[in-house]
Amino acid sequence: MDDPDGQEPREHYEERCDDEVDAVLDELQEALYPAALDLRENGAHSQHARGAPARRRGVLPNG
To answer: What digits encode the pLDDT tens for the residues 41-63?
Structure first.
């Protein structure tokens, strides 16, 4: 992504950088999408990472 010599025209350089960013985002989406679907199907989105219910902030325990 770097143009250390400054030889590349700005528009071409920015377009190439945008293409590289889009490629990385596509890879991440492909890698994470199946895991997100699994979490949604299992209902894990409402639980803490270790399976315990998420704690509410600002709520003190009774007693």
So the answer is: 887 545 555 555 555 556 555 54
Q: What angle do CA 25, 36, 58 make, to 5 degrees?
A: 105
Show the 3-state SS of the chain.
Answer: CCCCCCCCCHHHHHHHHHHHHHHHHHHHHHHHHHHHHHHHHHCHHHECCCCCECCCCCCCCCC
- Residues 26, 32: Cα–Cα separation, whole Å: 10
pTM over 0.85: no
Domain segments of the chain: what residues? Answer: 10-38
